[in-house]
Amino acid sequence: MAIFDNRYEQEKLLGQGAFSEVWKVKDNQTGVTLALKIYNPTPGADEDGNDMLTHEFALMVNASHKNLLRPLFFAMCGNRPYLILPYCEKGNIGKMIGKMDEDEAWKLLRDTASALAYLHAMTPPILHQDIKPANILLADNGDYMLTDFGVSTQAKQSLSRVSNQDMALFSAGTISYMAPERFTRNNLPIMANDIYSLGSTIYEMLTGFLPFGNDGGLLQKKGAEIPALPEGFSPLLNKTIESCLQEEPWKRPTAVDLEETANRALRHPGTRQFVPENNTPALKETTLQIPSELIEEPSIKATTMEYNRDLLGSGGFDKNPSSKKWYIIGSCAIVLIICALAAVFLFPDKLGISNDQPVVVNTDSLLVAEEMQEYEKCMELFQQDNIDSIHNAFDRMKALAVRGNKDAIFQIAYTYAAIPTDEESVRRKKLMEWSINEDGFLKDQALNKEAIRWLNKSIEVSDSTDYKSLYWLSVYHYYGVSVKEDTKLFLKLLNKAMMEAQKNNDPVFTDKINKTLQDFN
After folding, report:
1. How many domains does the chain have?
2. What is the pLDDT of residues 277-315, one digit of tens each?
């Protein structure tokens, strides 16, 4: 049996493509079963080329999300780059094509969209460019894991066995899952490409067929219409996939939108029968839409004044006093019908009612309640002293932050920021397995840049009243970590932080800022 790099016993070839081959291996040093991804040789690669590959693989290793198959490490063996990854016994989801039910499809959509939202929010953003069943694995715990992310078209081209001419399309993804804009002259990768490929994948998992066959978005550019799901699937799932497959990229939802929609569909299955008025699948604030057969009823069809005129005639109450009681009864009937409809929407399971007509309601209060519960759950996970819980808390909190939750944005900034005297912030960093130097800064400059980005975001959403983030950000400008050393900006941020801390009657933080100013002077 072959041994790779004097360590990995190659037990079984799991797959092979234009760029690499994947093996099931046994690590002879630890006895653990792993996956080994060996990329094609890089003959004649110069130092810059190898540096590019090393940088891109480092991004993959540093990406931490529960729905990403995160490589354990990257190395070179001779002139062959390789990755070591966790081994997923259940393999990819290709064997489930055409066999997936709606519940599982929503779970697949939630997990993959969550992973994409994380990748798209990175600095710089990571575009997957090749989402398909072969690149989605099923973990032992039932989670779906996105793999084969983070390697650019340029890097793939240097690793590919195919010709440069063929790479123009092949390197950007698998044609069957490619968006229409990828077949145009201006075919630079964008985030919406990934959304399209995900929509094609979900459609295939449910039906057994690709929405546009082997030609992908090319067939759509020639006028093919988006196919509907077969009968038996909910209106919301049909609408969500349709929105992902829109020909115009700007009409597609974001990964955050998709994660939000899928989460709601899983937590509240009754909402699957309700579709939004616009093309975005995430249920935002909309008006109540009553099923058409009920609108034909006079009591609902008419407005209050129209109902008054229909019952009482043009004379109103003054000319027909006896009809006043009928107006009151009619109005009460309207209220009762609307309340009944609301009950059917909110508690269909308890009422034993199945309503398969599309209805849309204002879901803002539901969204706020869900966000609060999710935030509280994340904070509970943050308090636990184990690696899995802290990573889970951080990923879920970051997803909330990406959606604009102010408290979540602050927590992400707090986790990243250099706060050497704060035990909780330091504890989180250690559990996240981030290396910290003696001054409290993260040794990884990419993480320090993330700290600055999220501190600025926290200040922005709080209208500069977040004095803690102002103070922490000032430190980066003083020490010049990941930003240009700027004493003037340091003092400006520090004085602003002082003013806001005093306004908020926080004597502890005011003293901290005062001490920093005294030390500087």
Report:
1. 4
2. 554 444 333 333 333 333 333 333 333 333 333 333 333
